[in-house]
User: Fold these one by one.
Assistant:
Number 1:
Amino acid sequence: MKTIRILVLIIVFALGGLSGFFVKNFPFIRWNTEVKIYEVFQVCSTLFIGIAIPFFIKKWIEDKRQLKNALIEECKETLTEIKRIRTKFEGCYSNNSISASDKDEILILFSDADLKVQNLKENFTLAFKGESKIGIVGIKENTVNAINNSYISYWKTVTGGSLMNSNYTRIDNDLLKSQKSDFSSVEKAIKQAIIFIHTI
Amino acid sequence: MKVTQSIDIAKEFSSKPGARYKYEGDFSGQLFLESLLLPKFDKAVQEGGKVLIILDDVLGYPSSFISGSFGKLSIDKGADQVLKHLEFESKNQMRIDKIISEIQNPKKK
């Protein structure tokens, strides 16, 4: 990429030089030799913009867009992982029974989700590491905390009550309601993170 | 502060921690607290050291287990004292965060 840029610069200058040579030695077109300084500046700035935009500015915009897309994708994957817990839990409610292996599966799903949430928190913090605007730093910290706290609250609700009691073999309505409510909070926190990323 | 005691939960207790109380089933938080955590914690405090808790190779940690063990310890001894004398090790940082969250805000049940 760097080689191509250098090559393009050399070609532009060579073409410029060649044009000047032909104009001087083969005057097919008569040029006004009185050159004003602002005209020189105009030509140079036009050339600079023509080179800078495709090579530098476009690349910077593209890099930033890809970073946002990667982070949004990570948010969606994390939410998908946590949804698996909800699906399993509500499946047991629909089946009117929950076995020891169902409970084990819920714990495994939480372990998997733990890793996703942790990665998301770390990547979120890393992505906005260089950001210095106070408002954005504050929103970023609130967003990460919201995801963390809502997820831990969800874990406490699902696994903190009677679920792990060996005599608990059917999910009651109260636990189902609490689970739905806390899942919504996690979902909201992650979706708000996506909105935040879009607005940066 | 040096680590003077350690507990590898998967090897010394169970790879499937259970509920909060002993009457609720096997490998409860209460059993873990009484048989392992509390004795080692008290010893570490006497020695002026820490207990290293190894959390890996376990299926998962239900909140009831954490509450019945670490949470109860925090209620009895105080969150600051518990955090001062415990150290956690895990490839899963969220596990550590959850336990610390419970120690800092133990659920009284």
Number 2:
Amino acid sequence: MAKILVADDQASMRLIISNMLKEKGHTVVEAEDGLSAYNRLKQDSFDLVVADVNMPKMNGLEFLKKVKAEKPSAKVIFVTGMLEETVKLGAENFGLDGLIIKPFEKSDALETIEKVLNR
Amino acid sequence: MKKVILTFFTSWSKSCQAELDNLQAIYGANRSDLEILAVSFDKKTKDLKTFLAKTNLPFPVLQDKKLLSIDTYQILIIPTTFCINRNGVIEKVFVDYDDNVKKALEEWLGIRSSDLPSEVRLWRTKEGGAKDG
């Protein structure tokens, strides 16, 4: 099972995603903003990061750029409510590994996560 | 005052379809004591209209194509279902839908599956494949 970092500024959103992952036997660590998530990633190794695109202190795109620059093998999935072109273009350019669009079926989200973990 | 079930769904989700199927049966058997409101996150009104024409849901359905209620109600997974008591207080929140959620919903309402009508399932058979009603 994997060790996954879940980053979102909303506690309820972190809880929903964390519970979903823990039910599958994964270990979950939470971060409440982009900067905290980035600092955790520097201190510890994770199999995957699941992050909200809109986070305070360091938004998702900025987080992705920094993470991929420093840890190219890190896997990052964004959770977003809108498939905005800027998000999609930015994400493709900086090596985003997966995208989960809100709202989602639990099974679809888990499938995306498993596919990325198994790459 | 009636109990209220508020559910958020999309027409393309199989989990949502299963839950709406069950809610239709529950509503049919408990109409005097229960209100159900369904909010769709379908971005295309045409898709929602097609779905409603096929399912003929007996309770009000609203459409939130801008997904404004996602933040307000903190919704990630569909369906998300709120069970509200007669005083307007949210007593239960269910995320996703499976047999456990089905049982918990029925327990909250104080009903048994065997008391629910099976005829309401007929709309699902039109999609393909016979299904016991």
Number 3:
Amino acid sequence: MNRTRLRQFIEDESQVLTRTLGLYLNRAGLTISASELLSEVVVEALKHEDRFNPARQPRAWLLGIAANLIRRKQAELARLNRREPLARDLYSGEELSDDEVFDWLASFGETESSAALEANEAVNALLANATPDDAHILRLAIVRGLDGEALARELGVTPGAARVRLHRALNRLRRTARKEKDQVDE
Amino acid sequence: MSKRHEQLLFHYSSALERGDFEAVAGVLREAERDPALEALILQMNDAYTAERFNHANPKEIPMIAAIYPNPTLPRTPRIRWHSLPLVAALGVIALLSVMLAAQMRGNNIFNTGQPGTSGALALQPDPTCNTGALALPVTFYSRPSADAAVLRQGYGTSTMVRDLIILDRTSVDDQGWYFVQVATYTQVQGWITAEQYAALEHCAEAAVVPPAVSATLSPDGATAVPNIAQQPFFVVTMPSGDVHVTYVPPDVQALPSFTPTPAPLHAEASPLPPTIVPPEPIEADGIAVAATDLARLGEGGVCKATTLRTAAVRSLPSPEGVVVTSLPRNTIVTVGDYATSRDAQGNPTVWYVVGVDEVRGWMLATLLDDSACPPILNASVDLPATQLAETRLYVTATAMIQAATAQASAVPVETGVIPPSELAPTAVPFNIDAAAMPPQSMLERAGNCTTTIRTTTDVLSLPSDDGVVIGSLPPGTVVAVIDTQVYHDGQNNSVLWYFVAAHDLQGWVSVYALEAPGCPQSQSEQMTLPPTLAQATSIPQPTPTLAR
């Protein structure tokens, strides 16, 4: 993708990019504006335009540049404040990692039928600790085995929104999942 | 969809939720070579951003509006203040009328001698601007000269002009220059040409879309709130997340008027706001929606504070709030109320509601000498400043306001008078953090040339005593040294000046304020500034096309 086409692509996508960068900045807790970050992304992208493989996805590439810029800013802030980056603070060592959570919950559906899962004490104990909304969506995902599209139809939302809700429910169960997993493993 | 995709999406969303952008970048690298994964990630991003715009950040909506003249705006949020009476809408209309009158008086920085703010101009969008939004190069220089050190370069957007605070302006060889600060990113300061500023401004949208354009204002039905041409900066707010209205008890006294004492300014800089006639308070259901009155600060009433440097007055208690106006150093403001929140690093921050003449807005407490104000109760801190819906506002309130807020809002509002006995024993510190290092970008610009401030010193916009004071640095502050300049006053007197960058402030200091830096090794061409710089002719004024 030559420079002109890249710039045109960025201009065409600037609305979506700006909204996504605003989301990233909000999550990162940085107070710079999305337009400022977009400007930096543009500079970086044009500077490294020759490294971009036209066969790859440009949006993901640009968002990756933004993520790296944000990471650098977070590291700078952390250095200024003489504390560890935020991401490390969230793992106490007692919680499961993303892959552990995902694998542990996915393992339920691989070996048991829906009816069996309904009666599974471990699953019920897990869901008992969840809020009613979380329990509902987790039951759909774990017991009924609904994936993103099916989950979205059941909930009446977009697939993206369905996944966001499911992932948040899973994250809220992270600590509970550790205890349950340890008990099962024993 | 594959299990692998589900796993990566979970990894992505979890990382995003906890702010781990190293992990986010890792998943995006996978998505570069997987179009299906990229599409799923974009789906999730849409869901997240739809969530955000349901609690719209007013700063984001005009950002989109500025890039495209007729954008498809996100669904506008409903006002949650269901008890807001219909007459309050009339009050908003009255405010709109006042603001139109203010605009017609020439609240325009290009009018010679007129005060103005960087974001107050109303221009008809040029249809060519929508494709050129990213093609506006902006270069920040250390001096008003194209051969000065370049501090920062980038692509400006048309929204940037609203973020720019003009601190000084001058003309050199018939070329106009502005010394500006990007309000939402205060580490960016420097001189830009008048043409660059005019290009940004030319593409600025005329209207700042308000956070709420429709609402249920009375139990009887819905009444649309008219679009306001710019943030209603003189309606002091009680943040609710999607609408900002102040409820003030009927018995709050009107503020006594006072005259601020501005510091001596460069001849071309006059950022004081114009006089605006405030509307009358509106009585409705026993609740006075007073546009200009401030709530009291504890039992001591309002207090006075002084700006420590050029400071922005914002529409919201957040760095993302629109800059209403900027006040020069040593401006005395009236403080009427405050809100506490956290900054991006999790440190507690305090915002004051301040007033100058008839202008009201929010200002960071760290920008003020508030030693004359009662100490603030060090109560539990709210959520980060970006989550305005949770910001806590302490007000003195009657039982009616308590009932109204409990009914209409999810915002936790502390009401009642704060007894002096419960006030914290020490005031919130306001000094600039001398321990904070200069930003990494400035260190790189300086080639890691740093030194230390030797004595409390003013930071100026120019390498000359004629520059505007834009701040001050305490002794011990580490600064990056980016440029040097010898100033000849035309009378055989020469002084060496340095352009330095601290954590949140960039500008010129004289050599007497620094520990001898010994760098940079190369210096700018020595330039003799004409002794008539202080009386520089006004810069060329472009002719804006007014929307009204």
